[in-house]
Amino acid sequence: MKIIAAIDIGTNSIRLEVVRVEEDHSLTTLTQQKQTVRLGEGEFSDGRMTPAAIERGALVCARFADVARGFGAEEIIAFATSAAREATNRDEFISRVREEADIEVVVISGPEEARLIYLGVASGANIGDSRGLFIDIGGGSTELILGDANQYFMLDSLKLGAIRMSNKFILNEKGPISPERFKKMVDYARGVAGHTARKLTSFGFDTIYGSAGTITNLADMTARRVGETPTSLRNFSVKVADLRVSIDQLCRMTLDERRRVPGLDPDRADIILGGAAVLIAVLDDTGADKLTTSDRGLRHGILVDRLMREGEVRASFQNTSVRERSILQLSRTCNFDEQHALHVSKLALSLFDQLKRLGFHPYGPRERELLHYGALVHDIGCFLSHSNHQRHAYYLVRYSDLLGFNDSEIDVIANIAYYHRKAIPKKKHENLAGLSRQSRKLVSVLASIMQICEGLDRSHLSLVQDVRVEFNHNPERITMTLISDTDCQLEMWGIEGGRVLFEMNFDLPLELKIEAPTPTVAAKPKPVRKPRAK
Protein backbone atom coordinates (compact mmCIF):
# COMPACT_ATOMS: atom_id res chain seq x y z
CA MET A 1 0.00 0.00 0.00
CA LYS A 2 1.18 3.50 -0.77
CA ILE A 3 -0.20 7.03 -0.74
CA ILE A 4 -0.22 9.31 -3.78
CA ALA A 5 -1.72 12.74 -4.46
CA ALA A 6 -3.06 14.51 -7.52
CA ILE A 7 -3.28 18.30 -7.90
CA ASP A 8 -5.51 19.62 -10.69
CA ILE A 9 -4.53 23.22 -11.44
CA GLY A 10 -7.52 24.57 -13.33
CA THR A 11 -8.50 27.96 -14.67
CA ASN A 12 -11.01 28.63 -11.91
CA SER A 13 -9.85 26.48 -9.01
CA ILE A 14 -7.14 24.13 -7.78
CA ARG A 15 -8.14 20.74 -6.44
CA LEU A 16 -6.28 18.16 -4.39
CA GLU A 17 -7.02 14.46 -3.97
CA VAL A 18 -4.90 12.27 -1.66
CA VAL A 19 -5.54 8.52 -1.85
CA ARG A 20 -4.22 5.31 -0.38
CA VAL A 21 -3.69 2.49 -2.87
CA GLU A 22 -4.99 -0.68 -1.25
CA GLU A 23 -3.63 -4.19 -1.74
CA ASP A 24 -6.47 -5.00 -4.16
CA HIS A 25 -5.55 -1.88 -6.21
CA SER A 26 -8.63 0.05 -5.06
CA LEU A 27 -8.30 3.67 -3.94
CA THR A 28 -9.32 5.03 -0.56
CA THR A 29 -9.67 8.82 -0.45
CA LEU A 30 -7.87 10.33 2.51
CA THR A 31 -8.70 13.96 1.77
CA GLN A 32 -10.16 16.21 -0.91
CA GLN A 33 -9.46 19.93 -1.04
CA LYS A 34 -10.57 22.73 -3.37
CA GLN A 35 -9.66 26.39 -3.49
CA THR A 36 -10.90 29.00 -5.96
CA VAL A 37 -7.90 30.92 -7.37
CA ARG A 38 -9.08 32.28 -10.76
CA LEU A 39 -5.77 31.66 -12.54
CA GLY A 40 -7.44 32.71 -15.80
CA GLU A 41 -8.73 36.00 -14.45
CA GLY A 42 -8.06 38.64 -17.14
CA GLU A 43 -5.82 36.25 -19.05
CA PHE A 44 -7.87 35.43 -22.12
CA SER A 45 -7.72 39.01 -23.39
CA ASP A 46 -3.93 39.51 -23.27
CA GLY A 47 -2.61 35.93 -22.98
CA ARG A 48 -0.86 36.39 -19.62
CA MET A 49 -1.57 35.28 -16.08
CA THR A 50 -1.62 38.27 -13.76
CA PRO A 51 1.00 38.52 -11.00
CA ALA A 52 -1.78 38.26 -8.41
CA ALA A 53 -3.12 35.06 -10.03
CA ILE A 54 0.38 33.53 -10.09
CA GLU A 55 0.87 34.38 -6.43
CA ARG A 56 -2.51 32.90 -5.45
CA GLY A 57 -1.88 29.75 -7.47
CA ALA A 58 1.62 29.15 -6.10
CA LEU A 59 0.46 29.68 -2.52
CA VAL A 60 -2.42 27.20 -2.86
CA CYS A 61 -0.15 24.61 -4.53
CA ALA A 62 2.34 24.95 -1.67
CA ARG A 63 -0.35 24.52 0.99
CA PHE A 64 -1.88 21.53 -0.84
CA ALA A 65 1.58 19.93 -1.18
CA ASP A 66 2.02 20.34 2.59
CA VAL A 67 -1.34 18.63 3.16
CA ALA A 68 -0.40 15.74 0.84
CA ARG A 69 2.93 15.22 2.56
CA GLY A 70 1.18 15.40 5.92
CA PHE A 71 -0.86 12.36 4.85
CA GLY A 72 2.35 10.59 3.86
CA ALA A 73 2.12 11.00 0.07
CA GLU A 74 5.13 9.42 -1.62
CA GLU A 75 4.26 10.96 -4.97
CA ILE A 76 2.51 14.23 -5.87
CA ILE A 77 1.35 14.58 -9.47
CA ALA A 78 0.43 18.13 -10.53
CA PHE A 79 -1.14 18.88 -13.90
CA ALA A 80 -2.12 22.34 -15.16
CA THR A 81 -4.76 22.94 -17.82
CA SER A 82 -6.20 25.76 -19.92
CA ALA A 83 -4.98 28.86 -18.04
CA ALA A 84 -1.37 27.68 -17.90
CA ARG A 85 -1.59 26.09 -21.35
CA GLU A 86 -2.43 29.38 -23.04
CA ALA A 87 -0.41 31.78 -20.87
CA THR A 88 2.72 33.18 -22.45
CA ASN A 89 4.22 33.54 -18.96
CA ARG A 90 3.41 30.00 -17.80
CA ASP A 91 7.10 29.27 -17.12
CA GLU A 92 7.02 31.97 -14.47
CA PHE A 93 4.12 30.21 -12.77
CA ILE A 94 5.78 26.78 -13.01
CA SER A 95 9.03 28.14 -11.52
CA ARG A 96 7.15 29.83 -8.71
CA VAL A 97 5.33 26.61 -7.82
CA ARG A 98 8.57 24.63 -8.00
CA GLU A 99 10.21 27.09 -5.62
CA GLU A 100 7.36 27.35 -3.10
CA ALA A 101 5.80 23.86 -3.23
CA ASP A 102 8.76 21.73 -4.33
CA ILE A 103 6.61 20.01 -6.96
CA GLU A 104 6.91 19.89 -10.73
CA VAL A 105 3.86 21.10 -12.63
CA VAL A 106 3.15 19.45 -15.97
CA VAL A 107 1.12 21.53 -18.42
CA ILE A 108 -1.03 19.14 -20.46
CA SER A 109 -2.58 19.58 -23.89
CA GLY A 110 -6.32 19.85 -24.50
CA PRO A 111 -6.69 16.30 -25.88
CA GLU A 112 -4.67 14.90 -22.97
CA GLU A 113 -6.92 16.78 -20.55
CA ALA A 114 -9.94 15.23 -22.30
CA ARG A 115 -8.42 11.74 -22.04
CA LEU A 116 -7.76 12.10 -18.31
CA ILE A 117 -11.24 13.50 -17.68
CA TYR A 118 -12.67 10.48 -19.50
CA LEU A 119 -10.65 8.11 -17.26
CA GLY A 120 -11.80 9.93 -14.14
CA VAL A 121 -15.50 10.10 -14.98
CA ALA A 122 -15.71 6.63 -16.54
CA SER A 123 -14.05 5.08 -13.47
CA GLY A 124 -17.02 6.22 -11.38
CA ALA A 125 -19.93 5.69 -13.80
CA ASN A 126 -21.97 2.58 -14.50
CA ILE A 127 -21.48 2.61 -18.27
CA GLY A 128 -21.44 -1.13 -18.92
CA ASP A 129 -21.86 -1.97 -22.60
CA SER A 130 -23.40 1.40 -23.44
CA ARG A 131 -21.70 4.39 -25.06
CA GLY A 132 -21.43 7.72 -23.27
CA LEU A 133 -20.92 11.31 -24.37
CA PHE A 134 -18.89 13.14 -21.73
CA ILE A 135 -18.89 16.92 -21.31
CA ASP A 136 -16.65 18.74 -18.85
CA ILE A 137 -16.98 22.55 -18.68
CA GLY A 138 -14.03 24.18 -16.97
CA GLY A 139 -13.05 27.79 -16.54
CA GLY A 140 -11.14 28.11 -19.80
CA SER A 141 -11.95 25.04 -21.88
CA THR A 142 -14.64 22.46 -22.51
CA GLU A 143 -13.79 18.83 -23.19
CA LEU A 144 -16.06 16.54 -25.21
CA ILE A 145 -15.41 12.80 -25.27
CA LEU A 146 -17.16 9.76 -26.72
CA GLY A 147 -16.41 6.41 -25.09
CA ASP A 148 -17.61 3.29 -23.32
CA ALA A 149 -16.48 1.65 -20.08
CA ASN A 150 -13.14 0.53 -21.48
CA GLN A 151 -12.00 3.02 -24.13
CA TYR A 152 -12.64 6.38 -25.73
CA PHE A 153 -13.42 6.74 -29.42
CA MET A 154 -13.09 10.49 -29.86
CA LEU A 155 -11.82 13.44 -27.81
CA ASP A 156 -11.79 17.17 -28.31
CA SER A 157 -10.91 20.23 -26.26
CA LEU A 158 -12.59 23.53 -27.13
CA LYS A 159 -11.69 27.08 -26.15
CA LEU A 160 -14.95 27.52 -24.29
CA GLY A 161 -15.26 27.86 -20.54
CA ALA A 162 -17.14 29.60 -17.76
CA ILE A 163 -14.49 32.27 -17.16
CA ARG A 164 -13.60 32.72 -20.83
CA MET A 165 -17.25 33.18 -21.83
CA SER A 166 -18.01 35.49 -18.90
CA ASN A 167 -14.98 37.67 -19.66
CA LYS A 168 -16.11 37.96 -23.27
CA PHE A 169 -19.80 38.72 -22.75
CA ILE A 170 -20.68 39.75 -19.19
CA LEU A 171 -17.48 40.95 -17.51
CA ASN A 172 -18.29 43.02 -14.39
CA GLU A 173 -22.03 42.74 -15.11
CA LYS A 174 -23.93 42.86 -11.81
CA GLY A 175 -27.50 43.07 -13.09
CA PRO A 176 -29.76 40.56 -14.87
CA ILE A 177 -28.72 39.18 -18.26
CA SER A 178 -31.24 39.82 -21.02
CA PRO A 179 -32.53 36.92 -23.13
CA GLU A 180 -30.95 38.56 -26.20
CA ARG A 181 -27.50 38.68 -24.63
CA PHE A 182 -27.71 35.11 -23.32
CA LYS A 183 -28.78 33.96 -26.79
CA LYS A 184 -25.67 35.65 -28.23
CA MET A 185 -23.58 33.67 -25.76
CA VAL A 186 -25.27 30.40 -26.72
CA ASP A 187 -24.92 31.15 -30.44
CA TYR A 188 -21.20 31.90 -30.00
CA ALA A 189 -20.69 28.64 -28.09
CA ARG A 190 -22.60 26.70 -30.76
CA GLY A 191 -20.36 28.22 -33.37
CA VAL A 192 -17.28 26.90 -31.56
CA ALA A 193 -18.67 23.57 -30.35
CA GLY A 194 -21.25 22.77 -33.02
CA HIS A 195 -19.06 20.84 -35.44
CA THR A 196 -17.59 18.61 -32.72
CA ALA A 197 -20.95 18.07 -30.98
CA ARG A 198 -22.66 17.08 -34.21
CA LYS A 199 -19.80 14.75 -35.15
CA LEU A 200 -19.97 13.04 -31.77
CA THR A 201 -23.73 12.74 -32.05
CA SER A 202 -23.46 11.15 -35.48
CA PHE A 203 -21.56 8.26 -33.89
CA GLY A 204 -24.44 7.77 -31.43
CA PHE A 205 -24.50 7.62 -27.64
CA ASP A 206 -26.79 6.28 -24.93
CA THR A 207 -26.14 8.67 -22.04
CA ILE A 208 -24.61 12.12 -21.66
CA TYR A 209 -22.42 12.61 -18.58
CA GLY A 210 -21.58 16.05 -17.21
CA SER A 211 -18.75 16.94 -14.85
CA ALA A 212 -17.03 19.95 -13.24
CA GLY A 213 -18.43 22.91 -11.29
CA THR A 214 -20.74 24.53 -13.84
CA ILE A 215 -22.73 21.35 -14.41
CA THR A 216 -22.81 20.11 -10.81
CA ASN A 217 -23.88 23.54 -9.52
CA LEU A 218 -26.68 23.82 -12.09
CA ALA A 219 -27.81 20.26 -11.31
CA ASP A 220 -27.76 20.89 -7.54
CA MET A 221 -29.73 24.12 -7.92
CA THR A 222 -32.25 22.41 -10.22
CA ALA A 223 -32.70 19.43 -7.90
CA ARG A 224 -33.54 21.73 -5.00
CA ARG A 225 -35.87 23.83 -7.13
CA VAL A 226 -37.94 20.80 -8.17
CA GLY A 227 -38.03 19.41 -4.63
CA GLU A 228 -35.39 16.69 -4.82
CA THR A 229 -32.70 16.31 -2.16
CA PRO A 230 -29.97 14.00 -3.49
CA THR A 231 -27.36 12.94 -0.95
CA SER A 232 -24.72 13.51 -3.61
CA LEU A 233 -24.56 14.45 -7.28
CA ARG A 234 -22.82 11.21 -8.18
CA ASN A 235 -24.72 9.66 -11.11
CA PHE A 236 -27.67 11.99 -10.48
CA SER A 237 -29.92 12.50 -13.50
CA VAL A 238 -31.57 15.82 -14.28
CA LYS A 239 -33.98 16.68 -17.10
CA VAL A 240 -32.65 19.15 -19.63
CA ALA A 241 -36.02 20.94 -19.59
CA ASP A 242 -35.61 21.54 -15.85
CA LEU A 243 -32.06 22.82 -16.40
CA ARG A 244 -33.35 25.36 -18.92
CA VAL A 245 -35.87 26.71 -16.42
CA SER A 246 -33.12 27.10 -13.81
CA ILE A 247 -30.87 28.94 -16.26
CA ASP A 248 -33.72 31.25 -17.30
CA GLN A 249 -34.28 32.10 -13.64
CA LEU A 250 -30.57 32.85 -13.13
CA CYS A 251 -30.58 35.20 -16.12
CA ARG A 252 -33.37 37.24 -14.52
CA MET A 253 -31.43 37.64 -11.26
CA THR A 254 -28.83 40.17 -10.23
CA LEU A 255 -25.38 38.96 -9.22
CA ASP A 256 -26.22 39.36 -5.53
CA GLU A 257 -29.41 37.35 -5.99
CA ARG A 258 -27.52 34.56 -7.78
CA ARG A 259 -25.10 34.34 -4.85
CA ARG A 260 -28.02 33.47 -2.57
CA VAL A 261 -29.52 30.72 -4.73
CA PRO A 262 -29.60 27.35 -2.85
CA GLY A 263 -27.26 24.85 -4.49
CA LEU A 264 -25.16 27.49 -6.25
CA ASP A 265 -21.65 28.19 -4.97
CA PRO A 266 -21.54 31.96 -4.27
CA ASP A 267 -17.96 32.08 -5.65
CA ARG A 268 -19.29 30.83 -8.97
CA ALA A 269 -22.27 33.19 -9.26
CA ASP A 270 -20.43 35.65 -11.55
CA ILE A 271 -19.37 32.98 -14.08
CA ILE A 272 -22.20 30.45 -13.90
CA LEU A 273 -24.07 31.88 -16.89
CA GLY A 274 -20.93 31.77 -19.04
CA GLY A 275 -20.70 28.04 -18.35
CA ALA A 276 -24.46 27.60 -18.71
CA ALA A 277 -24.35 29.04 -22.24
CA VAL A 278 -21.76 26.41 -23.23
CA LEU A 279 -23.87 23.64 -21.69
CA ILE A 280 -27.05 24.73 -23.49
CA ALA A 281 -25.16 24.97 -26.78
CA VAL A 282 -23.92 21.36 -26.49
CA LEU A 283 -27.30 20.04 -25.32
CA ASP A 284 -29.02 21.80 -28.24
CA ASP A 285 -26.67 20.25 -30.78
CA THR A 286 -26.85 16.75 -29.30
CA GLY A 287 -30.62 16.76 -28.72
CA ALA A 288 -30.18 15.35 -25.21
CA ASP A 289 -33.22 15.32 -22.91
CA LYS A 290 -31.41 14.13 -19.77
CA LEU A 291 -28.00 14.73 -18.21
CA THR A 292 -26.27 12.47 -15.68
CA THR A 293 -23.86 14.27 -13.38
CA SER A 294 -20.51 13.06 -12.08
CA ASP A 295 -18.53 14.29 -9.10
CA ARG A 296 -15.33 12.94 -10.64
CA GLY A 297 -13.02 14.56 -13.12
CA LEU A 298 -9.44 15.35 -14.03
CA ARG A 299 -7.79 14.67 -10.67
CA HIS A 300 -9.40 11.22 -10.52
CA GLY A 301 -8.24 10.57 -14.07
CA ILE A 302 -4.68 11.52 -13.08
CA LEU A 303 -4.74 8.88 -10.34
CA VAL A 304 -6.35 6.18 -12.49
CA ASP A 305 -3.87 6.84 -15.29
CA ARG A 306 -0.98 6.56 -12.86
CA LEU A 307 -2.19 3.23 -11.50
CA MET A 308 -3.05 1.73 -14.89
CA ARG A 309 0.55 1.93 -15.98
CA GLU A 310 0.93 -1.27 -13.96
CA GLY A 311 -0.35 -4.30 -15.88
CA GLU A 312 -1.95 -6.04 -12.90
CA VAL A 313 -3.96 -2.94 -12.00
CA ARG A 314 -5.03 -2.41 -15.61
CA ALA A 315 -6.32 -5.99 -15.78
CA SER A 316 -8.25 -5.48 -12.53
CA PHE A 317 -9.95 -2.36 -13.91
CA GLN A 318 -10.82 -4.05 -17.19
CA ASN A 319 -12.14 -7.31 -15.71
CA THR A 320 -14.28 -5.93 -12.88
CA SER A 321 -17.12 -3.43 -13.15
CA VAL A 322 -16.83 -0.14 -11.28
CA ARG A 323 -19.82 -1.13 -9.14
CA GLU A 324 -18.36 -4.49 -8.14
CA ARG A 325 -14.97 -2.92 -7.39
CA SER A 326 -16.58 -0.26 -5.23
CA ILE A 327 -18.71 -2.73 -3.24
CA LEU A 328 -15.79 -5.11 -2.69
CA GLN A 329 -13.54 -2.25 -1.61
CA LEU A 330 -16.04 -1.19 1.07
CA SER A 331 -16.61 -4.79 2.21
CA ARG A 332 -12.92 -5.64 2.42
CA THR A 333 -12.19 -2.42 4.26
CA CYS A 334 -14.71 -3.66 6.85
CA ASN A 335 -13.00 -7.09 7.05
CA PHE A 336 -16.15 -8.94 5.97
CA ASP A 337 -16.44 -12.73 5.89
CA GLU A 338 -15.98 -12.98 2.13
CA GLN A 339 -16.72 -16.71 1.83
CA HIS A 340 -19.99 -16.33 3.74
CA ALA A 341 -21.04 -13.23 1.78
CA LEU A 342 -20.34 -14.88 -1.57
CA HIS A 343 -22.21 -18.04 -0.56
CA VAL A 344 -25.25 -16.06 0.63
CA SER A 345 -25.15 -14.14 -2.66
CA LYS A 346 -25.04 -17.39 -4.66
CA LEU A 347 -28.06 -18.78 -2.80
CA ALA A 348 -29.95 -15.48 -3.02
CA LEU A 349 -29.46 -15.18 -6.78
CA SER A 350 -30.54 -18.80 -7.27
CA LEU A 351 -33.69 -18.18 -5.21
CA PHE A 352 -34.35 -14.90 -7.08
CA ASP A 353 -34.07 -16.68 -10.46
CA GLN A 354 -36.32 -19.60 -9.51
CA LEU A 355 -39.01 -17.35 -8.04
CA LYS A 356 -38.84 -15.27 -11.22
CA ARG A 357 -39.35 -18.36 -13.42
CA LEU A 358 -42.33 -19.39 -11.28
CA GLY A 359 -43.89 -15.94 -11.76
CA PHE A 360 -43.65 -14.79 -8.14
CA HIS A 361 -41.99 -11.43 -8.90
CA PRO A 362 -41.59 -9.14 -11.93
CA TYR A 363 -37.99 -8.04 -11.38
CA GLY A 364 -35.08 -8.37 -13.79
CA PRO A 365 -31.28 -8.01 -14.15
CA ARG A 366 -31.03 -4.58 -12.49
CA GLU A 367 -32.81 -5.71 -9.31
CA ARG A 368 -30.88 -9.00 -9.34
CA GLU A 369 -27.63 -7.05 -9.37
CA LEU A 370 -28.74 -4.94 -6.40
CA LEU A 371 -29.59 -8.13 -4.49
CA HIS A 372 -26.08 -9.44 -5.20
CA TYR A 373 -24.49 -6.27 -3.82
CA GLY A 374 -26.83 -6.28 -0.81
CA ALA A 375 -25.71 -9.85 -0.04
CA LEU A 376 -22.04 -8.84 -0.25
CA VAL A 377 -22.41 -5.99 2.27
CA HIS A 378 -25.10 -7.37 4.57
CA ASP A 379 -22.72 -8.20 7.44
CA ILE A 380 -20.18 -5.36 7.15
CA GLY A 381 -21.69 -3.66 10.19
CA CYS A 382 -19.96 -6.31 12.34
CA PHE A 383 -16.81 -4.28 11.68
CA LEU A 384 -18.19 -1.78 14.22
CA SER A 385 -20.22 -4.04 16.50
CA HIS A 386 -22.14 -7.30 16.19
CA SER A 387 -24.96 -5.79 18.21
CA ASN A 388 -27.28 -4.01 15.78
CA HIS A 389 -24.82 -4.73 12.98
CA GLN A 390 -27.61 -4.46 10.41
CA ARG A 391 -28.06 -0.79 11.37
CA HIS A 392 -24.32 -0.18 11.14
CA ALA A 393 -24.27 -1.87 7.72
CA TYR A 394 -27.03 0.45 6.54
CA TYR A 395 -25.08 3.58 7.49
CA LEU A 396 -21.78 2.27 6.12
CA VAL A 397 -23.41 1.62 2.73
CA ARG A 398 -25.58 4.73 2.68
CA TYR A 399 -22.81 7.17 3.46
CA SER A 400 -19.82 5.57 1.72
CA ASP A 401 -18.49 6.86 -1.58
CA LEU A 402 -19.80 3.98 -3.69
CA LEU A 403 -19.02 4.50 -7.36
CA GLY A 404 -21.28 3.68 -10.29
CA PHE A 405 -24.54 3.92 -8.34
CA ASN A 406 -27.20 6.59 -8.08
CA ASP A 407 -28.90 7.57 -4.83
CA SER A 408 -31.93 5.30 -5.20
CA GLU A 409 -29.78 2.23 -5.92
CA ILE A 410 -27.61 2.91 -2.86
CA ASP A 411 -30.80 3.28 -0.79
CA VAL A 412 -32.02 -0.14 -1.93
CA ILE A 413 -28.68 -1.86 -1.22
CA ALA A 414 -28.40 -0.21 2.20
CA ASN A 415 -31.93 -1.31 3.11
CA ILE A 416 -31.35 -4.89 1.96
CA ALA A 417 -28.48 -4.91 4.46
CA TYR A 418 -30.69 -3.28 7.12
CA TYR A 419 -33.48 -5.87 6.77
CA HIS A 420 -31.35 -8.99 6.27
CA ARG A 421 -32.35 -10.13 9.76
CA LYS A 422 -35.87 -10.54 11.22
CA ALA A 423 -37.23 -6.98 10.84
CA ILE A 424 -40.24 -6.26 8.61
CA PRO A 425 -39.89 -3.14 6.37
CA LYS A 426 -42.54 -0.54 7.22
CA LYS A 427 -43.30 2.78 5.58
CA LYS A 428 -42.92 4.64 8.88
CA HIS A 429 -39.28 3.53 9.26
CA GLU A 430 -36.93 6.48 8.92
CA ASN A 431 -34.58 4.65 6.55
CA LEU A 432 -37.47 4.07 4.11
CA ALA A 433 -38.90 7.60 4.29
CA GLY A 434 -37.19 8.87 1.14
CA LEU A 435 -38.05 5.86 -1.04
CA SER A 436 -40.89 5.66 -3.54
CA ARG A 437 -43.65 3.09 -3.09
CA GLN A 438 -42.09 0.95 -5.85
CA SER A 439 -38.66 1.08 -4.18
CA ARG A 440 -40.13 0.13 -0.79
CA LYS A 441 -41.81 -2.89 -2.38
CA LEU A 442 -38.54 -3.87 -4.07
CA VAL A 443 -36.70 -3.61 -0.74
CA SER A 444 -39.31 -5.81 0.92
CA VAL A 445 -39.09 -8.54 -1.75
CA LEU A 446 -35.29 -8.57 -1.93
CA ALA A 447 -34.98 -8.44 1.86
CA SER A 448 -37.31 -11.45 2.17
CA ILE A 449 -34.97 -13.40 -0.10
CA MET A 450 -31.96 -12.17 1.90
CA GLN A 451 -33.49 -13.20 5.24
CA ILE A 452 -34.05 -16.74 3.95
CA CYS A 453 -30.55 -17.02 2.46
CA GLU A 454 -28.82 -15.54 5.52
CA GLY A 455 -30.55 -18.32 7.47
CA LEU A 456 -29.40 -20.88 4.90
CA ASP A 457 -25.80 -20.13 5.90
CA ARG A 458 -26.35 -19.43 9.59
CA SER A 459 -23.32 -21.52 10.55
CA HIS A 460 -21.07 -19.77 7.95
CA LEU A 461 -19.98 -23.27 6.87
CA SER A 462 -21.75 -23.44 3.47
CA LEU A 463 -23.60 -26.58 4.60
CA VAL A 464 -26.54 -25.85 2.27
CA GLN A 465 -25.01 -26.23 -1.16
CA ASP A 466 -28.04 -25.11 -3.15
CA VAL A 467 -31.78 -24.60 -2.91
CA ARG A 468 -34.66 -25.74 -5.13
CA VAL A 469 -38.02 -23.97 -5.19
CA GLU A 470 -41.32 -25.42 -6.43
CA PHE A 471 -44.96 -24.34 -6.43
CA ASN A 472 -47.24 -27.11 -5.20
CA HIS A 473 -51.03 -27.52 -5.13
CA ASN A 474 -53.42 -29.13 -2.66
CA PRO A 475 -52.79 -27.09 -0.65
CA GLU A 476 -51.07 -24.28 -2.53
CA ARG A 477 -47.61 -23.64 -1.09
CA ILE A 478 -44.02 -22.88 -1.97
CA THR A 479 -41.79 -25.85 -1.29
CA MET A 480 -38.15 -25.05 -0.67
CA THR A 481 -35.74 -27.97 -0.76
CA LEU A 482 -32.33 -27.48 0.80
CA ILE A 483 -29.60 -29.44 -0.93
CA SER A 484 -27.24 -30.61 1.79
CA ASP A 485 -25.39 -33.74 2.78
CA THR A 486 -25.64 -32.94 6.51
CA ASP A 487 -28.42 -32.43 9.01
CA CYS A 488 -28.05 -28.59 8.86
CA GLN A 489 -30.52 -28.16 11.72
CA LEU A 490 -29.07 -24.73 12.54
CA GLU A 491 -29.90 -23.53 9.03
CA MET A 492 -33.45 -24.88 9.32
CA TRP A 493 -33.89 -22.82 12.48
CA GLY A 494 -32.28 -19.84 10.75
CA ILE A 495 -34.86 -19.87 7.98
CA GLU A 496 -37.67 -19.54 10.50
CA GLY A 497 -36.50 -16.00 11.20
CA GLY A 498 -37.29 -14.99 7.62
CA ARG A 499 -40.45 -17.00 7.12
CA VAL A 500 -42.87 -14.18 8.07
CA LEU A 501 -41.55 -11.64 5.54
CA PHE A 502 -41.19 -14.28 2.82
CA GLU A 503 -44.76 -15.53 3.20
CA MET A 504 -46.04 -11.95 3.41
CA ASN A 505 -44.41 -11.00 0.09
CA PHE A 506 -45.29 -14.13 -1.86
CA ASP A 507 -48.69 -14.70 -0.22
CA LEU A 508 -48.19 -18.46 0.24
CA PRO A 509 -47.03 -20.68 3.10
CA LEU A 510 -43.45 -21.94 2.94
CA GLU A 511 -42.70 -25.66 3.25
CA LEU A 512 -39.14 -26.80 3.94
CA LYS A 513 -37.40 -30.04 2.97
CA ILE A 514 -33.85 -31.34 3.01
CA GLU A 515 -32.39 -33.46 0.25
CA ALA A 516 -28.95 -34.92 -0.24
CA PRO A 517 -27.11 -33.79 -3.36
CA THR A 518 -27.30 -36.10 -6.33
CA PRO A 519 -24.09 -38.11 -6.36
CA THR A 520 -21.85 -37.49 -9.31
CA VAL A 521 -21.38 -40.68 -11.32
CA ALA A 522 -17.78 -41.03 -12.38
CA ALA A 523 -17.29 -41.90 -16.01
CA LYS A 524 -16.39 -45.56 -16.51
CA PRO A 525 -12.82 -45.78 -17.75
CA LYS A 526 -12.41 -47.16 -21.22
CA PRO A 527 -10.55 -50.48 -21.38
CA VAL A 528 -7.01 -50.26 -22.60
CA ARG A 529 -6.21 -52.64 -25.41
CA LYS A 530 -3.08 -54.62 -24.65
CA PRO A 531 -0.60 -55.05 -27.45
CA ARG A 532 -0.53 -58.54 -28.89
CA ALA A 533 2.49 -60.60 -28.02
CA LYS A 534 4.80 -61.22 -30.90
Content of β-strand: 15-25%
How far the N terminus sits from the C terminus, by CA atoms, comes to 69 Å
Count of β-strands: 14
Number of helices: 20
Portion in helices: 40-55%
Overall pLDDT: 87
Number of domains: 3
Structural class: alpha/beta
Major beta-sheet overview: 6 strands, mixed
Overview of the structural elements:
With 534 residues, the protein is of the alpha/beta class. The protein folds into three domains: 2-108 and 303-319, Nucleotidyltransferase, domain 5, CATH 3.30.420; 125-295, Exopolyphosphatase. Domain 2 (Nucleotidyltransferase, domain 5), CATH 3.30.420.150; 325-515, Hypothetical protein af1432, CATH 1.10.3210. It contains 20 helices and 14 strands. The longest helix is centred in the middle third of the chain and has 25 residues, at 179-203. The radius of gyration is 28 Å and the shape is elongated. 45% of the residues are buried.
Short description:
With 534 residues, the protein is of the alpha/beta class.
What characteristics describe this protein?
534 residues, Nucleotidyltransferase, domain 5, Hypothetical protein af1432, 20 helices, elongated
Topology:
Layout: E1 2-9, E2 13-21, E3 27-36, H1 43-46, H2 51-70, E4 75-80, H3 82-86, H4 90-101, E5 105-107, H5 110-122, E6 132-137, E7 142-147, E8 152-158, H6 162-169, H7 179-203, E9 207-211, H8 213-225, E10 237-239, H9 240-251, H10 255-259, H11 272-286, E11 290-293, H12 298-307, H13 311-319, H14 322-333, H15 338-357, H16 365-377, H17 389-398, H18 407-418, H19 437-456, E12 466-472, E13 477-483, H20 489-506, E14 510-515
Parallel strand pairs: 1-4, 4-5, 6-9, 9-11, 13-14
Antiparallel strand pairs: 1-2, 2-3, 6-7, 7-8, 10-11, 12-13
